[in-house]
């Protein structure tokens, strides 16, 4: 029983990192997720003067990458973990001082930000923790500007093993909910394998009207 209890505790740290262990896990995820983060940023097609929101920003590595490559954009990061946001704050200290970066502690199911305030929303490896897909997508739709886009990156298998549960959820829940909310061009794109995990993203666009 103890091993299962320990596994559950470790899993909870990945969902909501806490304390010194949580800080270590945050930096571990930075190293592990570099390939899919780079690919996800490419899919955003970030243009000058835009605002980008990352859901589950973790230790702020993706934010820092975007801010370094695009000196004229603003990036916001949302995460529920105070521990991990402390790491993100350190990593993006200079950009926060110049108001190009902003960190928000909160839940993915209720964003504390204005309607139609961002051009792009993205997330890497948080989909597994969404309690209600429709609620999160509704919030994404609310905060996106017209013609704004979302890219939600996840894994649907490792090696020869397919994770049918996540694939079924995308097909039967995510895509229908996104279409019902009015998103257009909703599609699933295959990305590069990372540590033998199969990288995938589901993406879409908010119509102009």
TrEMBL record:
Gene3D superfamilies: Vaccinia Virus protein VP39
Domain of life: Bacteria
Matching InterPro entries: Erg6_SMT_methyltransf, Methyltranfer_dom, SAM-dependent_MTases_sf
SUPFAM superfamilies named among the record's database cross-references: S-adenosyl-L-methionine-dependent methyltransferases
Alphabetized GO MF terms: sterol 24-C-methyltransferase activity
UniProt keyword annotations, A-Z: Methyltransferase, Transferase
Record domain Methyltransferase: where: 47-157
Keyword Disulfide bond included in the entry's annotation: no
Single biological process term from Gene Ontology: sterol biosynthetic process
Coiled coil: none
Name assigned to this protein: Methyltransferase type 11
């Amino acid at each position: 029983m103890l091993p299962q209890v320990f596994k559950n505790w470790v899993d909870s740290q990945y969902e909501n990192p806490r304390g010194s262990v949580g800080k270590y896990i945050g930096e571990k995820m930075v190293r592990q997720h570099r390939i899919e983060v780079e690919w996800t940023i490419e899919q955003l097609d970030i243009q000058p003067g835009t605002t980008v929101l990352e859901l589950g920003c973790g230790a702020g590595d993706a934010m820092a990458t975007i801010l370094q490559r695009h000196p004229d954009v603003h990036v916001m990061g949302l995460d529920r973990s105070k521990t991990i946001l402390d790491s993100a704050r350190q990593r993006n200290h200079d950009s926060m001082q110049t108001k190009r970066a902003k960190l928000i502690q909160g839940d993915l199911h209720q964003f504390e930000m204005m309607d139609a305030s961002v051009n792009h929303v993205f997330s890497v490896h948080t989909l597994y923790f969404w309690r209600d897909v429709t609620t999160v997508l509704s919030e994404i739709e609310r905060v996106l500007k017209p013609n704004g886009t979302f890219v939600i990156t996840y894994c649907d298998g490792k090696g020869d093993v397919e994770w049918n549960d996540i694939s079924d959820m995308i097909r039967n829940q995510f895509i229908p909910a996104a279409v019902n909310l009015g998103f257009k061009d909703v599609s699933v794109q295959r990305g590069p394998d990372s540590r033998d995990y199969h990288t995938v993203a589901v993406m879409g666009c908010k119509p102009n009207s």
